[in-house]
Design a protein that fits this description.
The complex is a heterodimer of chains A (723) and B (329). Chain A has 15 helices and 32 strands. Chain A is α+β, with helices and mostly antiparallel strands. Chain A has a seven-stranded mixed β-sheet, sandwiched between helices. In chain A, strands 7, 8, 9, 14, 15 and 16 form a six-stranded mixed β-sheet that branches. Chain A has a five-stranded mixed β-sheet with strand order 19-20-28-29-32, with helices on both faces. In chain A, strand 25 and strand 26 form a beta hairpin. In chain A, helix 8 packs parallel to helix 15. The longest helix of chain A has 25 residues. Chain A is globular. Chain B is built from 13 helices and twelve strands. The radius of gyration of chain B is 19 Å and the shape is globular. In chain B, the strands form three sheets. In chain B, strands 4-5-8-6-7 form a five-stranded antiparallel β-sheet. Classes of the chains: A alpha+beta (723), B alpha+beta (329). Chains A and B meet through helix 3 of A and helix 8 and helix 13 of B.
Chain lengths: 723, 329
């Protein structure tokens, strides 16, 4: 057993990425490649009455123009790929295939469409009364009585806007048919899910589809499901009987692969003079499309984030003429934590209690929603260590009392949380004759460091150096793994790789121990320590042998260990004690606000998180920092703006949709609070992909309030809201 | 993108002679090529002028500077003469775009930059600037970035340039040559207000090529400064910006001369000459500047989402002058 797990090892794929050698989906090629470009609707509601493709078809290089009129029938059970009914602006209505990307792009411009247009509804407020209940409202205790008994109240509407994920790598699919067998190079957060989706769409067996995606340039949720363009690419490849490459443009990505829906949240907190919550209500509404139901899950935190006997919680949806929303980094927790953590700050101000103290008075020792203990919860330590590092004690609670130079200074904090998901995952570890290890798992690396951590895990479990391990992921034909969403991959794939690697080592030891005159004769797996490529007897440390020598002795060209990691009974369903598994953290930030111009700069950040075992300190810290950067965007900048008249987004570019640039990002200190969790997963880690954004926007808003006395309940907090 | 003819001009004369209906001169391409990709601009021919010998910054007799039309934004901002003598210009350029864009963008191209109005950029929307007579989507729509001064019922778009705001304050002169010969256009007459022809951004005639921008000498006593207010700290267009200059002198120090130009508020860089006059003879105090700022925004009209700009523009002016006073410029 080595101790590579936890070390801040550099990314194994770092060099490939900075030199451009890492191959992303759209960079794959095949003989006779053709290029496809989508045609999107320019109206939001109504129907296509005519499509004139004659000019497009005459353009040089055009191979096919596929529309609702001439598209082939694919598996009937699903929604058609192209539809003459228009459900939102920017809906795919046709695709042009040509010899070159430029030819396809031009021809797509020349598909002339006539519409019968109806008035769309894309904003929530004017039609808010059309929201419908989704699921049963959750009621615990007696909210009305609790509120009646409260001496302090916070009762406000909080709003978050449409936001887009904007990964650096655009969505792309390269579809190659070989007979009835489809290979798709697809930019996706789930190679196996993408393969299943394509198989269903084309009515073929899952074994007939192979999805390959060795590198992903970010997903953040918008590559979590198979969007229509992937199927359109495969369908077009059938029509033209050639490989097809289809990559979305940045503008197309604003309507083709989901967004974080806007939310309207009615939050009420009631508390006694002691600051203890007596009532907590959270009713949230998010928009969804005419065709899909997507619940952002904004209000679910209300049932468990803080201790409270009387809770009302519910979720409504509102159908609008918009593209379908989807998961976006910390779906539910990011939007919900904005309102709850802002409301808690308001309550603290109202009571004259320190915001951390208020949270400690309402600390939930167990999950009150399920009445289960947490498998681990280090939130108190996160508050303590975060506050210490940040210098929270220097905060003068009086609003507007702190300055630096001409700037108003504000300190703000918020709690962070996200579930520790773990889903069934299989992996294989193979040792070759030279003693090297190949790890195979059908997971994928979104850019977070999956290759690196899986290598570290296998190195420790087999007992070799990390450079002796090669990790193969990003291929749906590898052992089955779930999509990389819900912050599950480090936990799920990490556990599977650990178990498979342990199985490999055990097998090697047992086979070797059984060989004639083996120095490890009579040794069981647990009697043998494996380290840096060498097996050593724990009974007699003078007895040791290299893996390569073992393989030679065994006469094997390769040996395999396989395993499937599965959540156990402790997550519920089985006998014994059940736990809620959740990560927690505390966010602290300092903002500087220009007293006249009201530009806000986040000056420094401290985030403290308890996330179980650290698999790689460097990639973990990077992921958490990335989450905080997203939080800065959510708090101050990000918003997709629909035009109400035309039902179309007006800022579909990275010049107009503002994500934080380097100049907006300050020094971010991440504290990893030591935490041991025996139940969360075999590997003992909790995921870190999403928790970093949670609470972040609220911490910024709370700091702005502290600096200026202006409470903004409507994200993003642009300067005009605090003039 | 529509197919186009490409031609590289070997001389200014050749470039001008090559101009035809539907042709465009190509500089850094940082705006024009984007617009072509969106089918907003569909030139039949691009005349590449980037190889012409117009990339020098030269001293003019009397203390001015002549900036070649092909001087890159980065080079202009970094020129020590510009930095010493026309600091606001250097500051304005460095407040715009990103280093990558400034390395490509040219002085002449920056003058020709088109609005960033989201409705102009997307051919699915009606827009009088792009398609005259189709209507203005911004007036009743998402107009947070839009104009509050000099706009018309046909168009409320703003000029996005930072550089041009400083040029307006500095009384720059645009040197052009066209089929009818050479002429000089004062910066304030170069860009147009939208009126009922918002499709026309400038008064440049067809086939006229910008070959230089002249900066008249600025008295040494005049200190200048540029302040930009924007949503993020880099790579964002101005909500409001102000280029100001001031000469304070005398035993009982008062303002002898002042310059004020505003960005982010109008279809053209907005020079506020009445407000400048109001400052002359006044002490250099916050009150004087606020008073002048009120003058500068006289007649300003906001819309649903950009009403805040009226007050913000005033504060921007005050801040720019106060930075000079307190030595933070």
């Amino acid at each position: 057993m080595n101790n590579y797990v936890g070390k801040p090892l550099d990314r194994v794929d770092g060099r490939l990425k900075v030199t451009g050698a890492a191959k992303y989906a759209a960079e794959f090629d095949a003989p006779k490649m053709s290029h496809a470009v989508l045609v999107l609707s320019t109206i939001a509601k109504g129907a296509i009455t005519a499509m004139d493709t004659s000019e497009a078809e005459k353009q040089p290089g055009v191979i096919a123009v596929i529309t609702p009129d001439n598209m082939p029938k694919v598996a009937a059970a699903q929604r058609p790929l192209f539809d003459k009914a228009i459900h939102y602006s920017g809906q795919s209505i046709a695709v042009v295939v040509a010899e070159t990307l430029e030819e396809a792009t031009r021809a797509a411009d020349l598909v002339h469409v006539t519409y019968a247009e109806e008035k769309p509804a894309v904003e929530m407020e004017p039609v808010i009364d059309q929201a419908y209940q989704r699921g049963q409202p959750n009621k615990r205790g007696d909210f009305d009585a609790g509120l009646a008994g409260a001496t302090h109240k916070v009762d406000h509407i909080y709003r978050t806007p449409i936001e887009h994920h904007n990964p650096m790598e655009p969505h792309a699919t390269v579809a190659v048919w070989n007979g009835d067998m489809l290979t798709a190079y697809d930019s996706t957060q789930g190679v196996s899910g993408s393969a299943q989706s394509l198989a269903r769409r084309f009515g073929i067996g899952a074994d007939k589809v192979r999805v390959i995606d060795p590198f992903v340039g970010g997903g953040f949720g918008c590559k979590g499901q198979s969007w229509p363009h992937s199927s359109i690419a495969a369908m077009a490849a059938q029509v033209v009987n050639r490989p097809v490459k289809l990559a979305l443009t940045r503008r197309q990505m604003f309507t083709s692969n989901g967004h974080r829906p806007p939310t309207r949240q009615a939050v009420i907190l009631g508390a006694g003079d002691d600051g203890k919550l007596t009532a907590h209500q959270h009713y949230a509404i998010n928009h969804t499309s005419r065709q899909d139901e997507f619940v952002e899950g904004t209000s679910r935190l209300a049932t468990s984030m803080y201790s409270c006997a009387n809770v009302n919680q519910g979720q409504k949806l509102l159908r609008l003429d918009v593209p379908g929303p989807t998961y976006a980094r910390a779906p539910g927790e990011s939007t919900g934590s904005f309102s709850i953590e802002t409301a808690m700050d308001e309550l603290a101000a109202e009571l004259g209690v320190d915001p951390i103290e208020l949270r400690l008075r309402n600390y939930a020792e167990k999950d009150e929603a399920s009445n289960r203990p947490y498998s681990s919860k280090s939130l108190k330590e996160c508050y303590r260590l975060g506050a210490e590092k940040f210098g929270w004690s220097k905060r003068n609670p009086k609003v507007g009392s702190m300055t630096e130079g001409r700037y108003l200074v504000g300190y703000g904090m918020a709690s962070a949380t996200y579930p520790a998901n773990f889903w069934p995952t299989s992996a294989k570890a193979v040792m070759t004759a030279d003693g090297k290890v190949q790890v195979q798992c059908g997971t994928q690396d979104l850019g977070t460091g999956t290759y690196t951590i899986l290598g570290q895990i296998a190195a420790d479990a087999v007992g070799v150096k990390p450079d002796m391990v090669r990790v193969e992921i990003g291929d749906s034909w590898l052992p089955n793994a779930p999509g990389s969403g819900g912050s599950n991959s480090a936990t799920s794939a990490g556990s599977a790789v650990m178990l498979a690697s342990q199985a490999l080592k055990k097998q090697v030891v047992e086979l070797y121990a059984a060989t004639e005159s083996s120095p490890l004769s009579g040794h069981a797996d647990e009697d043998v320590e494996a380290r840096d490529g060498k097996l050593t007897s724990k009974k007699d440390p003078t007895k040791s042998v290299e893996y390569a020598e073992v393989m030679k002795k065994l006469g094997k060209t390769s040996l395999e260990g396989e395993a499937t990691a599965r959540p156990g009974a402790e997550r519920g369903g089985g006998p014994g004690e059940h736990y809620t598994m959740q990560g927690f953290g505390a966010q602290f930030c300092e903002v500087h606000v220009d007293p006249d111009l009201r530009m806000v700069r986040v000056a420094r950040w401290v985030g403290a998180f308890g996330l179980g075992k650290v698999l790689n300190e460097k990639t973990l810290v990077s992921q958490l920092k990335g989450g905080v950067v997203w939080g800065i965007g959510m708090g101050l900048l990000e918003e997709t703006i629909p035009d109400a008249t035309h039902g179309r987004f007006v800022n579909c570019s990275l010049a107009d949709y503002h994500v934080p640039v380097s100049a907006d990002v300050c020094s971010i200190d991440i504290i990893l609070v030591p935490e041991e969790d025996k139940f969360v997963s075999p590997i003992g880690a909790k995921g870190a992909g999403e928790i970093g954004i949670t609470g972040a926007a609220a911490a910024i808003g709370n700091a702005i309030y502290h600096a200026t006395g202006k409470r903004v309940r409507d994200l993003p907090i642009t300067l005009n809201k605090i003039l | 993108m529509k197919a186009f003819e490409y031609q590289r001009a070997g001389s200014v004369g050749e470039a001008i002679r090559s101009a035809s209906d539907g042709s465009k001169f190509l500089g850094g391409g940082t705006n024009l090529v984007d617009l072509m990709k969106y089918n907003v601009e569909e030139p039949s021919k691009l005349i590449d002028v980037t190889r012409l010998p117009l990339a020098k910054i030269e001293d003019l007799p009397g203390g001015g500077l002549r900036i070649g039309a092909l001087v890159k934004n980065s080079d202009l901002a970094a020129d020590h003469r510009v930095f010493e003598r026309y600091r606001m210009l250097s500051q304005a350029i460095l407040n715009g775009a990103s280093p990558q864009l400034r390395n490509l963008a040219t002085t002449g191209g920056n003058l020709m930059q088109r609005t960033r109005c989201g409705y102009f950029y997307d051919t699915a929307f009606p827009c009088n600037k792009r398609t005259p007579g189709s209507g203005c989507s911004a007036i009743q729509g998402q107009n947070r970035m839009h104009a509050i001064l000099g706009q018309s019922d046909a168009c409320i778009a703003v000029n996005p340039s930072d550089m041009c705001v400083a040029l307006a304050a500095l009384d720059a002169v645009i040197q052009v040559e066209g089929p009818k010969g050479k002429r000089s256009i004062p910066i304030l007459e170069f860009h147009r207000l939208p009126g009922d022809t918002p499709n026309l951004d400038t008064n440049l005639g067809h086939g006229e090529l910008i070959w230089a921008v002249d900066l008249p000498p600025l008295p040494k006593e005049v200190q200048t400064h540029y302040v930009k207010v924007r949503d993020r700290n880099s790579y964002a267009f101005a909500l409001t910006s102000a280029a100001v200059g001031m000469h304070v002198g005398g035993v009982d120090p008062t303002i002898r001369a002042a310059r004020i130009a505003l960005g982010g508020v109008s279809h053209k860089p907005w020079r506020a000459q009445e407000a400048e006059k109001a400052l002359v003879g006044m002490p250099a105090t916050r009150e004087s500047f606020r008073h002048a700022a009120e003058f500068a925004l006289t007649g300003a009209k906001g819309y649903e989402h950009n009403d805040f700009k009226v007050e913000l523009a005033k504060r921007t002016i005050v801040r720019a002058f106060m930075d000079l006073v307190v030595g933070l410029a």
